[in-house]
Design goal:
Blueprint (H helix, E strand, L loop, with lengths): L2 H12 L5 H8 L3 H14 L18 E8 L7 H8 L4 E6 L6 E7 L2 H15 L3 E6 L15
Antiparallel strand pairs: 1-3, 1-4, 2-3
Helix pairs in contact: 2-3
Length: about 150
C-alpha cells in the first residue's frame, strides 16, 4: 500500500459515495488508475464494505449505553452470539477477556427499552451479571477507522 492507496481510503472514509471521477480529480490521477486502485483494494479485502452512518438520535435512538455482560461459567457462547445478532438495539458487540465475557453497545429509544433489554438478557439468555453505563456524548472525531500509518 502506498500514498495513493491511503488517499483513496481517506477519501472513502469521509464520503463512501464519492465517485471515481471525483476521487481521481482530488488525487490528480486518471480515472482508470483510480478505478483500478479502488478495485484492487476491494479485492484484497482491505476495503470490505461501503456503508452509511446514521445519527442515532435522529433515528429515535436517544439512549446510548455500554453493557458489560458476564455469562455463567462453562456456557457455550454461540447461542448468545446468535441472540444478540437478532436484537436491533445492539449496535456493536465484543467478546472480551477479563471479568466480563462481552461488551455490548446498545442504542435504545428510552430507558424503558433499555430496562426491557437488560431483563431479556438475564431472563431469556441466562446472563449471570450485567454492568451498564450510559454514554453522555461521543468525543468529536470518534469513532474512527484504524490508522494506516
Amino acid at each position: 500500500m502506498d500514498a495513493v492507496d491511503r488517499k483513496i481510503i481517506a477519501l472513502l472514509q469521509i464520503d463512501s459515495r464519492i465517485s471515481v471521477t471525483d476521487m481521481a480529480d482530488e488525487m490528480l490521477i486518471g480515472i482508470s488508475a483510480a478505478s483500478e486502485r479502488l478495485k484492487r483494494l476491494v479485492r484484497s479485502g482491505l476495503i470490505s464494505r461501503f456503508t452509511v452512518e446514521l445519527d442515532a438520535s435522529l433515528a429515535g435512538r436517544n439512549i446510548d449505553a455500554l453493557i458489560d455482560v458476564r455469562l455463567p461459567a462453562q456456557v457455550d457462547h454461540r447461542p448468545f452470539d446468535e441472540a444478540i445478532q437478532a436484537m436491533p438495539a445492539v449496535v456493536n458487540a465484543l467478546h472480551l477477556t477479563g471479568p466480563s465475557d462481552y461488551q455490548l453497545r446498545v442504542q435504545t429509544r428510552d430507558v424503558a427499552e433499555l430496562d426491557a433489554l437488560l431483563s431479556k438478557l438475564k431472563i431469556d439468555f441466562g446472563v449471570a451479571e450485567t454492568n451498564t453505563r450510559l454514554a453522555l456524548r461521543t468525543v468529536e472525531g470518534f469513532p474512527r477507522a484504524p490508522s494506516l500509518e
